[in-house]
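TA notes. Do not distribute before section.
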Amino acid sequence: MAWSWSHTHEAYDYARNELEKLPYETLLEIDAEWQAAEYTDEPYAHTPEFNIEKFNNAMQALSLPTEDELAERIWDRANEQRTCDNGGWNAWMCPYGCHTVNFGPEMED
């Protein structure tokens, strides 16, 4: 089960900064996961299906974006979804919740 974002502006700024610190390879993987996500019109279908072919194509893209471009695309998609783990500690940066960033230093392990 996941929650929806409901944090302060400072928490969102912190999470955005944490996203920008992720390694380029991780940003590429997260971006590919967003591209591979296939949402349905089914009521209450919160988890998108994963299309491995789209994921692999995205990972093999010939024109690779910069880190800033990736972080911007990922943040926009994550902000649109606005999902976090139970308790609201970690913002989901991918559609599946396997890539997260903290909302603040007090929330780090």
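Switch to the second chain here.
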Amino acid sequence: MKTMKFFFAMACMLGLAASCFAQNADTNVSTKKTSGIQAARAAAARALKAPGQSSEEVPAVAATLTSGAFVFTITIDLHPGFPTSDKIYCSANAYTSESSAANYADFSADGYVQATVSGSTATCSITLKYGWLLATPTSDTVGLGVDVRSTYGSAGTIPWWDNESTWGSSLASVPASGSTTPVKVTTAI
């Protein structure tokens, strides 16, 4: 008897849950499925619209391709006694964001190379080519970053050490399309 009451109670709870879900179901949903990214973009567009404005009325922002290159020349002074067997690696990145009432986008370019060592100096050269769709490149700030790293051995083994140096800067706007922008960095490890 207790078992039957338990199953009856569970059936009632499942029936109530199903009716709650049915009340929330949208009967006008099309059968076309959208990806999570498409759904997120649609939700963002709805959230950004002005009060009383429909999603169809959100004005499109005219974006044009802004392209060019950042040429990083990185000079690294090595500390006295720096092990000659250590490999040194450099990474560089450039990034910007574009946001308006209708659009939001992040753009970046990244590069990674091994340094050339000569005596107590190492050098890296990294060319980052970019092509970003921007509506307001003259007011979009560009962040620039460099990371220099040298590791000897493997983590958890003896001997092991890690030397690292980071650098960052910014430009007030994206360079004119077609530009090659030199970026000179001097650092030490």
